[in-house]
């Protein structure tokens, strides 16, 4: 992650453009308290005050924000929103890991006495929100949770390495971070390091480039607990695997506990050296599976209480029934519904939720909606030629359906503004933004536009 040097000036320029794209009210309400913190993977990392801002901006203003960023920040494509409290320590390097002090020689008295626990968590790369206690255990995760508890609380035999695998959004990072936190609680002076595999490989490449491998090695070879997230990303990266193999051996030789997560079993990671596969499998492997209905319900109820949001029990059950594959999606759905309820001030019905979460719900059912299928469905509905979706013709009887198709492409697919413009006869992203705004406004004013869009969406899902 690169810290932007003159962030304030850069952000001011972006906000100036943004101010021209959204209403004054919207700007004041949603963007005034945001700030640019860094650029990561060609994306602007923008901090917002809380989850509500994050969800609201993501749902309603992402195209405008992305356009303002693209116009004012060279080489930056896209935006990542991060809630202030959850900001990783991007602007504050993990300074005390740089000192090559062997883990077991840390001065216990001074370290434990002087450094607050929160600070220790941060230095280790841990997020205080992920604890063993606030992880809802179900049959899908019972074994994984028990293993993590044993490692975190240092009970039982050393499961080394502990390898946790399972699908996306099922709680692997949560459990891994919870191990780190439990470990630090039981032994506050221990050297705990959490990092993603991507960070490991990037730092390794950087160290090779700068001829500074020694420092890199010292940084990671003296941990007592090493937590590496998303290890599957090391697949196919030969030199990083070589380095990781040595790091791994030296950590295990030095009796460091290693925990790894992956979205698949070690043996299924593509282009992973056999010696690493067997190293990863030589400890304990645990799997997290998707939760069943009762567990999904319990997770939602817990999140509702934690976030102190008001969502009726019937809607919670509706979400638990409909969103089955991914806990992150469950959380996102709950947050969206709660945000809507608090801002709209009206009772949230199942129909409302169905509309509000249509993208999420569609992903759950797995039906693929493409720009092409949208263009066909819209042309069919309005009885215009498919060729008119891409033509330059402008009579309202053609321009309006075309704008509806752009609006649906924006809301129902993951295509960028540019890709959508391109698919509509090489139009630019501004035309797509204009279409989205116009149709959104029209839907507010005109029930028949809303109905037509509902009918087209239903036809796309069949
Ligand atoms: N059983 C659970 N109880 C409470 N919260 C959970 C549970 N499972 C997942 N979550 C929450 O769901 C979100 C996603 O979890 P997490 O990031 O740990 O998933 P992951 O498996 O690491 O996903 P990925 O592979 O995409 O990185 C987090 O906010 C986490 O707190």
UniProtKB/TrEMBL annotation:
It is found in: Cytoplasm. Residues 370-439 form the Chromosomal replication initiator DnaA C-terminal domain. The keyword Ribosomal protein does not apply. SUPFAM superfamilies: P-loop containing nucleoside triphosphate hydrolases, TrpR-like. Its main location: cytoplasm. ATP binds at residues 169, 171-173. Pfam families: Bac_DnaA (PF00308), Bac_DnaA_C (PF08299), DnaA_N (PF11638). Residues 1-94 are annotated as: Domain I, interacts with DnaA modulators. Keywords: ATP-binding, Cytoplasm, DNA replication, DNA-binding, Lipid-binding, Nucleotide-binding. Transmembrane segments: none annotated. Residues 342-462 are annotated as: Domain IV, binds dsDNA. Residues 158-290 form the AAA+ ATPase domain. Residues 125-341 are annotated as: Domain III, AAA+ region. Belongs to the DnaA family. Oligomerizes as a right-handed, spiral filament on DNA at oriC. PANTHER family: CHROMOSOMAL REPLICATION INITIATOR PROTEIN DNAA. HAMAP family: DnaA_bact. Plays an essential role in the initiation and regulation of chromosomal replication. ATP-DnaA binds to the origin of replication (oriC) to initiate formation of the DNA replication initiation complex once per cell cycle. Binds the DnaA box (a 9 base pair repeat at the origin) and separates the double-stranded (ds)DNA. Forms a right-handed helical filament on oriC DNA; dsDNA binds to the exterior of the filament while single-stranded (ss)DNA is stabiized in the filament's interior. Domain I is involved in oligomerization and binding regulators, domain II is flexibile and of varying length in different bacteria, domain III forms the AAA+ region, while domain IV binds dsDNA. NCBIfam families: DnaA. This is Chromosomal replication initiator protein DnaA. The gene is dnaA.
């Amino acid at each position: 992650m690169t810290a932007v040097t003159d962030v304030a000036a850069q952000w001011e320029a972006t906000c100036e453009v943004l101010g021209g794209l959204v209403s004054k009210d919207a700007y004041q309400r949603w963007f005034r308290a945001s700030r640019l913190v860094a650029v990561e993977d060609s994306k602007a990392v923008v901090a917002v005050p809380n989850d509500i801002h994050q969800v609201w901006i993501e749902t309603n203003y992402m195209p405008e924000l992305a356009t303002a960023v693209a116009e004012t920040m060279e080489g930056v494509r896209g935006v990542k929103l991060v809630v202030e409290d959850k900001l990783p320590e991007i602007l504050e390097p993990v300074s005390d890991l740089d000192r090559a002090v062997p883990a077991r020689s840390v001065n216990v008295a001074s370290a434990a006495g002087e450094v607050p626990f929160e600070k220790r968590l941060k230095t280790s790369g841990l997020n205080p929100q992920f604890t063993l206690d606030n992880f809802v255990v179900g049959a899908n995760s019972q074994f994984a949770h028990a293993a993590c508890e044993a490692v975190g609380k240092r009970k039982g035999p050393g499961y080394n390495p502990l390898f946790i695998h399972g699908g996306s959004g099922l709680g692997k990072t949560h459990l891994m971070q919870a191990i780190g936190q439990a470990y630090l609680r039981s032994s506050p002076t221990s050297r705990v390091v959490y990092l993603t595999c991507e960070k490991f490989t990037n730092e390794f490449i950087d160290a090779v480039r700068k001829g500074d491998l020694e420092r890199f090695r010292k940084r990671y070879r003296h941990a007592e607990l090493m937590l590496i997230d998303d290890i599957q990303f090391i697949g196919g990266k030969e030199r990083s695997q070589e380095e990781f193999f040595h790091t791994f051996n030296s950590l295990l030789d030095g009796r460091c506990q290693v925990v790894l997560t992956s979205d698949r079993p070690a043996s299924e990671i593509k282009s992973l050296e056999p010696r690493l596969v067997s190293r990863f499998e030589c400890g304990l492997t645990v799997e997290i599976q998707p939760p069943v209905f009762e567990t999904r319900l319990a997770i939602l109820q817990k999140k509702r209480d934690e976030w102190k949001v008001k969502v009726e029990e019937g809607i919670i059950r509706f979400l638990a029934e409909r969103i089955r594959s991914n806990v992150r999606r469950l959380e996102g759905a709950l947050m969206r519904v709660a945000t809507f309820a608090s801002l709209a001030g009206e009772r949230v019905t199942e129909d409302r939720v169905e509309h509000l979460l249509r993208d999420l719900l569609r992903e759950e059912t797995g039906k693929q909606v493409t720009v092409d299928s949208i263009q066909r469905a819209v042309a069919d509905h309005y009885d215009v030629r498919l060729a008119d979706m891409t033509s330059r013709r402008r009579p309202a009887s053609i321009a309006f359906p075309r704008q509806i198709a752009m609006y649906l492409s924006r809301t129902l697919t993951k295509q960028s503004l540019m890709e959508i413009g391109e698919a509509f006869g090489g139009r630019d992203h501004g035309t797509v933004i204009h279409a989205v705004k116009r149709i959104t406004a029209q839907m507010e004013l005109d029930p028949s536009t809303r109905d037509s869009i509902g009918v087209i969406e239903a036809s796309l899902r069949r």
